[in-house]
Structure formats: C-alpha cells, structure tokens
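This entry is retained here.
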Amino acid sequence: MEEVERLWNEVRELSLGNNSKVERLQTPPTALQFLRDFVNPNKPCIISNAINHWPALSLWAQAQHSYLSRSLSSSSVSLHLTPSGRADALAPLPSSPSSLCFASAHVQRTPFPDALRLIASPDHNPAVVAYAQQQNDCFRSEYSALAADCDPHIDWATEAFGGALPEAVNLWIGNQRSHTSFHKDHYENLYAVVSGEKHFILLPPTDVHRLYIRQYPAATYRYSSDTGEFDLELEEPIRYVPWCSVDPFPPPEKLHEEVSKFPLYFNGPKPFECTVKAGEILYLPSMWFHHVRQSSGDGGCTIAVNYWYDMQFDIKYAYFNFLQSIHYRSPSLLLPEKFSEETDSDPDCL
C-alpha cells in the first residue's frame, strides 16, 4: 500500500507546506480568511494579538495568583490527580507490568485555593501531579466567576463556523509536569494560552496509521490522602478504549525499542511542531492528532482557555472513516491492528 505512504507526503505538499512549520498570523483573520485559508483546508495556524484585550492576561498573572484565589475563594473545582502527570494515557497494568492499560486520573472536588497551591507548588508533594480542568464546559460553570475576564466566544471563528456559539468553553490550570498523549477530537478547537506556554506535536488525520491505535483495557487511578499513594484499578466490567500507542518522547534507554515497535511514526514524515505562547491562539482543526507538553509561567502555572466548536460531519469525515478502515500494510511492515471505533473518553490535560 505505497499509496497510503504517498498520501502522507501529498497532504503536506498540497495543503500544509513540507517544512513542518505551523503558519503564524500576526493579527486575527477575518471570518472569510479564516474559513477559506484554514477551516476548509483543515489546516492549523497560530494567531497572535488576538486576545490582547482580555483582562485575564494581566489579572490571572498577578503574583501568587491573588486575583484568582480571591475570585474563586468559595468555589470547588474538579482536580485531576495522577502520579506521573499522564492521565488519559497508557500505563503498565497493575497485575502485569509488561502489558498496558488506558489510565484515567483520580478526580476529586477541591476548594480552588487548595487546588491552586497544589498545582503551583509541585515540589511540595512530588508524588502527586495536579491539574485543574474538566472537559464539560467548566469555564461557564465551575469558573463562571471569571467569565468577564475573557471573551465568551471568538467572534471571527464563530462567524466562520456559521454563527453557532461554542459547544463548550474549558479552563485548564496545570504545571510543567503534566503531558497529554496523542489523541484527536471531534471539535474545531480555538486554544488560547493565558499564562506559560504549550508545546504541540501535530499530525494530520491522514497519518492515522502511524499512531498504531490499539484497544487497551480502561483503568482509573485511586488516590488515598491518608497514605499519599495511588492505586490503578481496572474497570469492572472490563471496557476497552482505542488509543494511540506512540510516545514521541520515550526515555533514552527505550528509544531503540520504541523505534522498532513504531517505525511508521519515527521513520515517517516529520510531525508539525509549534509553541503557543501567552496571548496567542492555536486553531487546532477537528480530527488532527496532537500531543501536548507545557512550560509554566509566572507563579508556576500554565493557564489556558479553549473553545470547542462543533465540527462539520461532511465529506472530509467520510474520507477519514474510509482511510482508517483500511488494513494498512507497509511494503516492509505490518501495522498491528485495524483502527476501531472512537471512544467517548476525552483526553486529559491539554
């Protein structure tokens, strides 16, 4: 199936350019420009100077996050806890470390000031990595006290998407210890960084075979505040989640092994990489695979707000479903399993 490998390169040449760079706009586009140049061709971009007017850029960066603590002093938020900063990611099975499962975070309701202290001072409890987020429109519910600090929607994006307002607006507060494993979303994503930086690795939907998506049993971390330890428990009854197998940053001692297991990723076309800084927006098109790391800003936190707009289930979606259904055989390599149906689980910690 050399045609599939040729498709990876043709998508880059025809739509994206073959230099692994994400286009950067210095000013917000018009709705027409955004629709024509980025939404219709399903092409990511970074927009600078689009949220300079947000009060959040100055208020949320105050020393010791005094504004945030004061504004949310009486609020409880959903705090995600893991031992490694990798939630909704692959982890060794408790009963069989040589096998992997899909591990979700321990989630607990926590007073916001306590959650913020745990996030902003990661060395205080190095055995726990905390992330304040909940992908259920949490900015307009848990964090509604901050609503006036950001725009309720991105006006030029809303117009380009036909006038429909975002399906969800989410707030993310974490630190440099949190990572997001490769995944994709069925949303058009406008991702605005308020503090710190986000480091993305991106792959277009046509590269689906390079991520070795397999079925993994679902598990959840359980955290005991009494012992300060985590247990990883398999769900009962067993539920399987299709998830990307590739870690783009394996430990040096495992690099050779990972390259041997996943050669289509490591030896294929170079992924797109970009850093989104405070005050910038990343347009992440629907169905694009992305892996995310982050660097903390002032006060030890990385803070972002993202707007999820419904994607159009059009001919591009049909093309992708056809492509992922193919049992792809490289001229020299066999891709392990056919891609299976999409999980309802959403990725943690963007």
